Structure formats: C-alpha cells, structure tokens
C-alpha cells in the first residue's frame, strides 16, 4: 500500500472516529467504509447526519449525488464523498503548511 493511501485511510478513520482497520488496498478500505456507512443508515441515522456535518460534506452535493444515482449503494456514494473530502483537506494542509517549521523560537511571532 502506498504511503499516500495509508495517510488517507488514517485521516478518514480519525475523522469519523470509528474503529475501522487499515486495509491492504484502497478498494477494500472503501468497501469497509461503505459497510460502516450502511450500518449507520439503518441503525443510527442521526449519528450519520452529525458525522457528515462535522466532516463538512456538502448537503447539496450529497442530495444531488443520491438523486442522480438512485440505483447505486448509498453507503458507497457517501463513503466516496467522505474520502474525497478528506483528500481535499490533506491537500489543503500541504498547500498552506509553513515551509519554515525549523525557525528558531526567538524569530517566531
């Protein structure tokens, strides 16, 4: 497994605060996450709603996706949105991270 895929898996697991195992392949992780989401849909929908809100998943985008792909598995569609959002966050952190992390303390402000 690539380092980047492992980082994404770790970020998703941390963000959703679930005890999901790291998987050998990204596809297997996606399927595991989709299964978790499907359990939330049937057993604890309110938890899913709070999770999506906390992860900053666009409600408008989610509704449009679910409507346009009504025959697809909802858990997989939502899992894809969660993974996509976490990738965006990782890229944003890298883009805006400070390159000079080794600045002496007296020179920081």
Throw out a few tags for this protein.
109 residues, mainly alpha, 5 helices
Provide an overview of this structure.
The chain is mainly α and 109 residues long. The chain has a domain of 61 residues. It has 5 helices and no strands. Helix 1 crosses helix 5, helix 2 crosses helix 3 and helix 2 packs across helix 5. The longest helix has 23 residues. The protein is elongated and about 60 Å long.
In short:
With 109 residues, the chain is mainly alpha-helical. The chain contains five helices and no strands.
Topology (elements, then pairings):
Elements (H helix, E strand, L loop, with lengths): L2 H14 L9 H18 L1 H10 L4 H10 L5 H23 L13
The CA-CA distance between the termini, in Å, is: 40 Å
Order of helices and strands: HHHHH
Poorly predicted regions:
none
User: What does the main sheet amount to?
Assistant: none
The number of distinct β-strands equals 0
What structural class should be given to the helix and strand makeup? mainly alpha
Per DSSP, the total helix count is 5
């Amino acid at each position: 497994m690539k380092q980047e895929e492992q980082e994404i898996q770790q970020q998703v697991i941390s963000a959703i605060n679930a005890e999901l195992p790291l998987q050998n392949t990204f596809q297997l992780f996606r399927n595991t996450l989709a299964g978790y989401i499907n359990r939330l849909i049937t057993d604890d929908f309110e938890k899913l709603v709070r999770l999506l809100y906390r992860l900053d998943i666009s409600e408008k985008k989610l509704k449009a996706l679910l409507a346009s792909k009504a025959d697809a598995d909802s858990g997989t569609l939502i899992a894809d949105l969660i993974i996509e959002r976490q990738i965006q966050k990782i890229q944003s952190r890298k883009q805006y991270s400070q390159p000079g992390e080794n600045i002496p303390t007296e020179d920081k402000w």
